[in-house]
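Write out the 3D structure for:
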Amino acid sequence: FLELALQPFGAASSDLNDLITSQVVDRSGLNEQSLMDKRVVILANVPELDSNQVNALKSFVEGGGGLVVFPGDKVKIDWYHRELFREGAGLLPQEFVALAGAGSGSARDVESTKIINQHFSHPAFAFFNDPRNGKLDEAKFDHWFRLGLSDESRDRVPPSLQSEVEVIARFDTGDPFLVERAVGEGLVILSAAPADAGWSNLPTQPVYLPVMQRLVTYLAASVD
């Protein structure tokens, strides 16, 4: 879904040129060499990375790269908290606090949620202030992660670090859908839901293509 959204003309063998040129690699293909000359990296349901990959990704972002992290059923939550969040000192803006949605077992949970149509001030989503550019609230999410701080991290993470986190968009439950934080010279965006259709019907909605393109082009234009 993500590859098609970023390169729709190429996927359709059209004579038109795509704005974005993407390269898909599996987990083993992420290294310092593959990050050269790239502007944006997307982790899509990646279980975990080894220490060399984490260091390469950290150097990439701190040096001015953009990073988008999508979760999914394969991610090892403890590893993400330990190696990528690191009590606010790592790459992730926030933690995957808990799974929400249908069958999650929480008394406060609803069965599904959707993205709130609001006035967006963030450059990546200001495009959707014009309803003709896509209806975000037509996508239904059956599962998502609540982003924020766990009870264990709440007293350990400096308030100054959390004040740097910006919520790009929210669900109608009030939970963040996308959050962003600057890391070094680069930017990191964390999603509460996957980029595939496992937890939502977002990838099957017309708005999916502009959402993904706006996120990537925003990062590519904002960082060096």
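DSSP finds seven helices and seven strands in the chain.
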